Amino acid sequence: MGMELGIILAYALGLIALYIIVWVLATPLKFIGKIVVKAAIGVIILFITNFIGNFIGVSVTINPLTATIVGILGIPGVVLMVAINKL
To answer: Does pTM top 0.70 for this prediction?
Structure first.
């Protein structure tokens, strides 16, 4: 009977350890996933900005850095990128 309790405790500790390991490894992946999604949204916003800006002479270079900045900051990021490109 004592051996069965030891096995049950070992399984329980193993499952807890596995849960902690998966949680630690999954947390950075969620963060990276959010950044990638925001960068994709930034690319779309930059394409729209360049399309509309083409009529008034405004354009922003589309690269991973500008897409991420625009994706994270939103409209202020677009204004920032346009201002930097006009300098």
So the answer is: no
